[in-house]
């Protein structure tokens, strides 16, 4: 099991279940677009951004990018790490049909994403949108 001190933000409960079998970390769930209507959950994400930092790990689809952009704008203080996964087309085994965009979630590589080490092939670059928030991007 990989210990990660930052909290990980994912979209849904299946993402949390899969990651919790790989990493030892706080995993927060946005429940998709429900994050727009849940100020308590947003406050919790902000709290972790200020204290330990958060890793945004949303899906590589249109909804995932929309949620990611909302959270980036809503978190003004603290550290936000972003994990981007490659687009992998196909159907998830637990679903009857593929998504509208035809992409699988998480790029199909949660083990590589969770590892977060140089052997995964990640490159990182630091960007700061404001003096209060440091942002680091990771690409798989």
What would you say this structure looks like, in words?
The protein has four helices and eight strands, in the order E-E-H-E-E-H-E-H-E-H-E-E. The radius of gyration is 14 Å and the shape is globular. With 140 residues, it is α/β, with parallel strands linked by helices. The longest helix is centred in the first third of the chain and has 13 residues, at 39-51. Mean pLDDT is 77; it is low at 116-140.
Summarize the model shown:
This protein is α/β, with parallel strands linked by helices and 140 residues long. It is built from 4 helices and 8 strands.
Derived from helix and strand composition plus strand pairing, the structural class reads alpha/beta
**Spatial strand order of the main sheet:** 4-2-5-6-8-7
* Shape label: globular
Instruction: Name the helicity range.
Output: 25-40%
Topology:
Elements: E1 2-3, E2 7-10, H1 13-20, E3 23-24, E4 27-29, H2 39-51, E5 54-56, H3 62-74, E6 78-84, H4 110-115, E7 123-130, E8 133-139
Parallel strand pairs: 1-3, 2-4, 2-5, 5-6, 6-8
Antiparallel strand pairs: 7-8
